[in-house]
Amino acid sequence: VQLVESGGGLVQPGGSLRLSCALSGVTFDDYAIGWFRQAPGKDRARVTCIAPFDGTTFYIDTAKGRFTISSDSATNTVYLRMNHLRPEDTAVYYCAADVPPGACSETMFDDYAMSYWGAGTLVTVSS
To answer: Distance between CA 122 and CA 111 in Å, rounded?
Structure first.
């Protein structure tokens, strides 16, 4: 199983970015796939997840209305569209995945539940 993130970079406050996570070695619909982030000096924290099988999603409160997670089963790719970015969104963003699809839920989605991880992509929100 391999997860490869891309799309990070430097963006001004209020700007947007789209992160991508390409998965290989998996049956896409068998997995819950999500994004975590680790800000400087802080622990890694969950952000959002999706179960491509049925489109179930979960967002933390600070991501609701600003971030959108989506998936493309034709390319085994998960996207994270981030709008209205704030300096406090600055972090390394990690894509993670595990079975089953039901792992994408408020109660189950957390880093201890994810077996597969990408290397991360840095997002810096600064003027």
So the answer is: 18
2, 95, 108 from 19: Cα distances, Å? 16, 9, 23
Q: Using alpha carbons, list the distances in angstroms from residue 113 to 5, 12, 22, 120.
A: 19, 33, 20, 18
| Lookup result for tokens 């952000």 | 47
What gap in Å lies between CA 106 and CA 89, rounded to an integer?
Answer: 20
Task: Give 50-109 pLDDT, tens digit per residue.
Answer: 999 999 999 999 999 999 999 999 999 999 999 999 999 999 999 999 999 899 999 999
Q: How far apart are CA 47 and CA 57, in angstroms?
A: 11
Q: How many Å is the Cα radius of gyration of the chain?
A: 13
For 16, how many CA atoms within 13 A lie in the half-sphere containing its CB?
Answer: 9
